[in-house]
Design brief:
By secondary structure, the protein is of the alpha+beta class. The protein contains five helices and eleven strands; from the N terminus they run βαβαββαβββββαβαβ. It folds into two domains: 3-114, 3-Layer(aba) Sandwich (Aminopeptidase), CATH 3.40.630; 132-227, Gcn5-related N-acetyltransferase (GNAT) (Aminopeptidase). The chain has an eleven-stranded mixed β-sheet with strand order 1-2-3-4-5-11-6-10-9-8-7. Residues 107-238 form the N-acetyltransferase domain.
């Protein structure tokens, strides 16, 4: 089975890739979006149902895009990989990974996997961090607090996510006020002292490396709705 690099997908390839994603999502606790807005795709096609016993057209897919940041002077690529549930453990992911590393030699590879960190992650790649998607249900609906609210000790940023949910995309407390409960004061002012309105929930994203923010949001009643963990994708030492 050969690995093929595609920069774009035909309608048939897009359909087959979405079918593969849907099959994988049936096996996963945290389903993936079937959006295929990526810069490149590595495909392993099904060479024939008689040989594999599988009807679907794509057996493995590795896709990714450039993050727009650098590490050690190299561009960082974020990658996701999917293997047909009936073809796992047969080295298809390894084939895609090696092709990726041959084609993008001057890049750093970051692999994303839904869910919290797994100590026994089967691919054995070094863990980097986890990004948490948090949500809080408000006791009473509030009006839109504005895109930016400024306080003597910090500021907070919101945008509407939908008709009933706000997206909190920035909370900053000046250094000299940190550790004094000012972040909590800002959020309580927004959630408890504002005008009544239609927004009954707040969502946000936080990086596991920002432990003070994570502790604050959990104290304020935010719950983890989804998590994505990131690993350093690289060759094993015995392959180097």
């Amino acid at each position: 089975m050969e690995v093929e690099l595609q920069r774009t997908l035909s309608l048939e390839e897009e359909r087959d890739c979405k079918t593969l994603l849907s099959l994988c999502n049936l096996e996963e606790e945290h389903p993936y979006d079937t959006d295929l807005d990526y810069d490149f795709f590595y495909l392993i096609r099904n060479e024939g149902e008689k040989e594999t016993g599988i009807a679907e057209g794509i057996l493995a897919l590795l896709m990714g895009y450039k993050l727009g940041e650098q590490q050690g002077g190299k561009d960082v690529l974020l990658c996701l990989a999917f293997v047909h549930p009936k073809m796992r453990g047969q080295g298809l992911f390894t084939q895609c990974k090696e092709s990726l590393m041959d084609d993008f030699r001057n890049c750093v590879f970051r692999f994303m996997k839904k869910g919290e960190r797994e100590e026994d992650f089967s691919l054995s790649f070094p863990y980097l961090y986890t990004e948490y998607f948090l949500e809080k249900k408000l006791e009473e609906g509030i009006a839109f607090p504005g895109e930016k609210r400024i306080y003597p000790y910090g500021e907070v940023y919101f945008s509407p996510y939908n008709e009933k949910t706000l997206y909190l995309y920035g909370l900053m407390v000046e250094n000299r006020y940190r550790g004094q409960g000012k972040g909590e004061a800002i959020l309580r002012d927004c959630f408890e002292e504002g005008e009544k309105g239609p927004y009954t929930g707040v969502i946000l994203q936080v990086d596991s490396r920002n432990s003070p923010a994570m502790k604050l949001y959990q104290k304020m009643g935010f719950l983890v709705k989804e998590a994505s963990s990131y690993y350093q994708l690289k060759k094993r030492k015995k392959e180097d």
